[in-house]
Amino acid sequence: MISSSPTSQVPVPGAGGVVLRGRRVLLVRYKSGDWAFPKGHLEAGESAQQAAVREVQEETGVQASIAGELPTTHYTNDRGEARAISWFLMEASTEAGELESTFIEGGFVSADEALTTLSFGEDRELLRAALKQAEREG
User: Which positions fall inside the Nudix hydrolase domain (predicted)?
Assistant: First the structure.
């Protein structure tokens, strides 16, 4: 008898930013109630860095620049889609912005508050890595 192994789903690439302004961190809250960092899909011909800057601006209205690379995370979203998100440490020049309608709230909070607010352990680990990197480079 021949058995077939399940095909592994190729993750959909995305990019996002852990955006800092001093020791304050930019978070967004989805309608599901989950708190996370701004992120999204790459557009055709777009690099992960370009997508991260664009997604942060589109989702939050905050202009931010890339200060470094962070680890890529993998997960399956609520639609069953495998995702691979390239993360970047980013610095915001201002806290002013306007949230996209996808989110019910968001903005900058202290790093300590972010560590208790983020919904997913992977995001808390990502924030810890970002804060260490910012401290080393700062």
Answer: 10-131
For the chain, give the number of residues: 138
Full residue range of the structural domain in which residue 112 is found = 20-137
Tokens found for residue 49: 């860095």
Tell me, yes or no, whether 27 lies in a domain. yes
67-89 confidence digits (pLDDT tens): 999 999 998 887 888 999 999 99
CATH number, domain with residue 25: 3.90.79.10
Asked if the structure places residue 2 within a domain, the reply is: no
Is 4 within the bounds of a domain? no
**pTM score above 0.85:** yes
How many C-alpha atoms does 5 have within 13 Å on its Cβ side? 3
Residue 7: predicted pLDDT: 46
For Cα atoms 77, 107, 99, give the angle at the middle one, nearest 5 degrees: 70
